[in-house]
Amino acid sequence: MQFEQGNNLPRVKMTNQSSILRMVYHCGPITRADIARRLDLTLPTITTNINAMISAGLVQELGSTEPTDHRHGRRSRLLDIIPDARHFIGVEMTGSESAVCLTDYRGKLLDSRSAPASSRDYEDNLDMTCSLIRKLLDHCRLTLADVDGIGFCVPGLVDGQAGILKVRPSYNWYDKPILRDVGRQLDLCCPITVENNACARAYGASLFQRDLLNNAPTFAYLFIHAGIACPLILNTSNAFGSIVGAGEVGHMVMEPNGPQCTCGNHGCLEAISSDQAIISRSMDALARGGAPILRALCPVGEKPTMAHILQAQQSGDADVYLIVERAVYTLGLAIANIDNFTCPHTMLIEGKLFREPANRQQLLDVVHRNICKVTRTDTDFVFVEPDEFSGARGAAAVAIFHDLQTVAE
């Protein structure tokens, strides 16, 4: 049986500090009065805590607003986070490559590094990734003591509380204690957070891409790469960036008798519409003597990349066109189902497949044909340009999100 934890004055104080800091971070520039109103706290409580944060170098006062009291001409001072008050490292380790970056409190990319993996071995990947972190810090003339948190993200099912990668089937990685292993390799004293790489991107959007979200109270982040995931985020005034599930939609069965997935089932979305599935099907076409344009684009002896496939599609390769069309169509059906079930206000879509405008249009056509128009039809679908460091920067966002909840402690 579980019981709710009771409150005492120190705990209430820490809760208030964390809530106030998060409000400044997410809604700044903001006035003390607005914070008090949104959090339903007294103005003296806000002022006491804000003064402590200013003294600690976390929060700064900016310019004044227009007078709110016309009789006395009083102006309210605006508050915001100091971007360079704290620094964070973000890491994405996929098994095929690793990317690391250094950001400030606002997610500004200060430096970055990436490298392909030499093998699929977990320990080899971890060694290479930790080496990248050291090189990044050396180049920035920093030490691990200058870092306030490290976010680490990987594909697969992640237990974030324990810091363990539970499973990544395609690489046979099971129960990998990432938090422990990274802590030992780097001899860290700063907090480490571990998250799924699609969830990390969603955190990154919540913290760093508010312009894309347009203050949406809920949003989903569909990420298509070797796998497919779509976490849902609550982005309200009281639950900034609270994630609802890992969104492993890649294992929704779309074709019961379809191709076998890495999970062992048949007809999963991932087995039809992921980058890996499209590349694999294109290689099958080449092996049969088809896809002539793709064959001319690919270096001899090398497997095609998504860039080759999209170029072949643009150039009129019929075999590639059919492969891509099937992938986009199936993905469109899946998105319609996700939208019917969760009704997010915004869905961000990141995938190399949608660098081709024709694929974007086909996807939206399929989605809008299959959304339940009786309930709601106003989800805003926004395509996000794939970036080599979007996962690493998202991992840094997870570390920042954790920091905002715990820095007052």
Keywords:
22% strand, 409 residues, single chain, alpha+beta, 5-stranded mixed β-sheet
3D architecture notes:
- The protein has 409 residues and is of the alpha+beta class.
- It has 14 helices and 17 strands.
- Strands 12, 13, 14, 15, 16 and 17 form a 6-stranded mixed sheet that branches. The chain has a 5-stranded mixed sheet with strand order 6-5-4-7-11. A 3-stranded antiparallel sheet has the order 1-3-2.
- Strand 5 and strand 6 form a beta hairpin.
- Helix 6 packs across helix 14 and helix 12 packs across helix 13.
- The longest helix is centred in the C-terminal third of the chain and has 25 residues.
- The N terminus is likely disordered.
